[in-house]
Amino acid sequence: MLFAVIALVVVVVLDVIMAALLPPLSTLRLPTATVGPSPTPRPTNTPVPTPTEVPCDGPQWWESVGATVAPFFQSNLLTGGARSVTNFDEFRSAQQGIRDAAAALPYPPCLAGAHDDLLDTLNALLLALNVPNAQQIVAAASLYGLPYDNVRHYYAAISDGYENLRDLIAGLEAQGVTPQDSDLGGSIGAARQFARFNTLDCQATRWAATEAVSWFALVSTAGDSLTSGEVDRNQLGRVVIQLQNNGLRIEGAPFPNCMAPARADLLEANDGLVAAIQGLLSGDSAALQQNAAAYAQARGRLEAAIRSYIAFMNIPS
Fold first, then answer.
1. How far is it, in rounded angstroms, from Cα 273 to Cα 276?
2. Phi and psi at residue 128, in whole multiples of 5°?
3. Domains of the chain by residue range
4. What is the rounded distance in angstroms from the CA atom of residue 245 to the CA atom of residue 288?
5. Given pLDDT bands bounded at 50, 70 and 90, which one contains residue 3?
6. Are 240 and 277 within 8 A, CB to CB?
7. What angle in degrees, to the nearest 10, is found between the helix axes of 260-282 and 213-228?
8. Is 172 left (phi over 0), alpha (psi -120 to 50) or beta?
9. Is 164 in contact with 218 (CB distance < 8 Å)?
């Protein structure tokens, strides 16, 4: 009995001691379970494209684009075939509509550059159609009497169109598309001709079409006066000033080295014509004849020098 009492006392004492040493159960926190790594997925043989990856089908894009923009080139604006246009305002409006339709066409990111080159081509040709006197230039069988500055701006825009179309061809070929020369009403073939004569080292067609052709428009009336015997002194006086100013502009303007001989012929012809007109106005027949001959010879060399560079453009003489 005594031992039982002693044991009970010991148990009670131990409970008191443990209660004093241990924190209450309400303050105890169970350990947090840590989630293990997800199982590694098994590799598959099918690659999963990123959300921005879009398949590139160059031939399909070119086919759809060609069907949309082909009417833009059916007038053969690049190759001088738009002279049959009867209503110029309607024609220009229709061209703008085709350009807008082309801009709305979807395109894969891999052809973003080609898409931009296409729109740049259309924009350049629309710019040409908005040059003052564009209607007369487009319809002209001859540049006779047309304002030479407007002729120069018109053919500068046409040259831009050629350059952008050339870049479009290169962009398509980089994506495995080979446009045919007959595509876009034959404009692809003309652009390849342009590319032959216009490289980084020699922009032959651009110089010939903008500088030489516009000069022909300027001198057409004055040149005829030398042989026709009809003299409008006021008009010829104005032409002399224009020729002198244009000669100074050409002398100061950059030019491709490959066209240096043609440029020299143009400046010589320009100076010869000025001197011939001055001889005509002053009644100096010897100066007239001598300088008119020099003008004709230099002009002939110029025409021969640039002929092959612009033949595919069918520019009126």
1. 5
2. -60, -40
3. 58-197, 208-311
4. 21
5. very low
6. yes
7. 30
8. alpha
9. no
Dist. CA 20–CA 51, nearest whole Å: 64
Q: Predicted confidence band at 229 (pLDDT cuts at 50, 70, 90)?
A: low
Q: What are 234-267's pLDDT values in tens digits?
A: 888 888 999 999 999 999 999 999 999 999 999 9
Which pTM does this prediction carry?
A: 0.79
Tokens linked to 204: 């032959």
Give dist(CA 149, CA 131) in Å, integer.
10
Q: How far is CA 95 from CA 112, 156, 199, in A?
A: 22, 19, 29
Q: Which residues pair with 198 in a beta bridge?
A: 203
Q: 135 to each of 88, 129, 140, 265, how far by Cα in Å?
A: 6, 7, 8, 30
Q: Within the chain, how many helices (H) and strands (E) appear?
A: 12, 0
Angle between helices 213-228 and 285-310 (to 10 degrees): 150
Residue among 225, 222, 205, 223 nearest 315 (CA)? 205
Cα gap 307→216, rounded to integer Å: 13
What pLDDT, in 10s, does the model give residues 109-126?
889 999 999 999 999 999
